[in-house]
Amino acid sequence: MKVLVTGAAGFIGSYVVEALLKQQISVIAVDNLSTGKLSNLPENVLFYEIDITQEDLEAIFQLEQPDFVIHLAAQSSVIESMSNPVEDCQANLFGTLNILRYARQFDVKKCVIASTAAVYGNPNIFPVLENSKLSPLSFYALSKLSAEKYAQLYEKLFDVKSTILRFSNVFGPKQPNGVITSFIHRLIEGENPVIYDGNQTRDFIYVKDIATACLQAIMSEHTGIYNISSGEEISIQRLYDEIANLTGMMTEPVYESLREGEIQRSILSNEKAIASLEWTPSYRFVEGLKETVHYYTLQKQ
């Protein structure tokens, strides 16, 4: 089995590559290194530095003939998408379209496509199911939802099978940005963390559980859309308190109002993924948080 991973040198991608290699699966790692780092990847992995929006990607599909694609490359910042919606669309929608057309051309068995809980917007019913109302509040969420629709139509029209994974809030060591990374860095440095409101909630999922879900998605015969989440609702205020406790650092946070495009409450049902993909999250929230804090504490020493 040979799997092409886009965004392979990124935060999530590097864990997916590691999980595949542990299963003795051949990996073709693709990344433009705009945010990813070669140091995130094992030295022996086959790597191509390329932007997935470029037509040069065709040559890699032709040369390597992958059986599966795990598509993780993306512009992943909500804030950045609000400032640069065209660039966000280019990366998330056009990039996915390029993957889909080459998957069709070279008879890829299935594409696993990373999506996001942000497509649900601010739902009224919890936990959120895969068939809940979709109401993106940012251009990032809209571009990811549009990519989903293209993948579904490619499957319907051309039999390019796809499994779409809607990730909740992913965290873990090596994450370049995000609320958890920000809190840890500021506390370790003795700075005042910024909390936007604090009452908003997130469904935090540890990155190693995300990697396992991607692996299960290529193994499973099922296609369709699946929430990949912990199913646990954590407030940002509680998150800060947990990190402060783990680091042993206590500085007074700076409180500001919720930012444009941010979701107020998020908790996703993962029952469909558990039943169909035979995947279950292994890490409890505090366990993943401990590993993450430990990683950044060692880096500081």
**What would you call the shape?**
globular
Helix content: 40-55%
The topology string of helices and strands comes to: EHEEHEHHEHEEHEEEHEEHEHH
Q: What would you report as the Rg, rounded to the nearest angstrom?
A: 19 Å
Number of helices: 10
What structural category characterises the helix and strand content? alpha/beta
Distance between the termini: 41 Å
Give the oligomer, counting copies of the same chain as homo and different chains as hetero. Answer: single chain
* Mean of pLDDT: 95
Low-confidence stretches: none
**Residue fraction in strands:** 15-25%
CATH top level?
Answer: Alpha Beta
CATH topology: Rossmann fold
Counting DSSP E segments of at least 2 residues, the number of strands comes to 13
Biggest beta-sheet profile: 7 strands, parallel
The CATH architecture is: 3-Layer(aba) Sandwich
Write up this protein:
This protein is an alpha/beta fold. It has one domain: 3-Layer(aba) Sandwich (Rossmann fold). Helix content is 42%, strand content 18%. It is built from ten helices and 13 strands. It has helices spanning 11-22, 57-64, 78-83, 85-105, 139-158, 179-189, 207-219, 236-247, 271-276, 285-300; strands at residues 2-6, 26-31, 46-49, 68-71, 110-116, 162-167, 169-171, 194-196, 201-202, 204-206, 224-228, 234-235, 254-256. A seven-stranded parallel β-sheet has the order 3-2-1-4-5-6-11, sandwiched between helices. Strands 7-10 form a two-stranded parallel sheet. The radius of gyration is 19 Å and the shape is globular. It starts with a strand and ends with a helix. The model has no long low-confidence stretch (mean pLDDT 95).
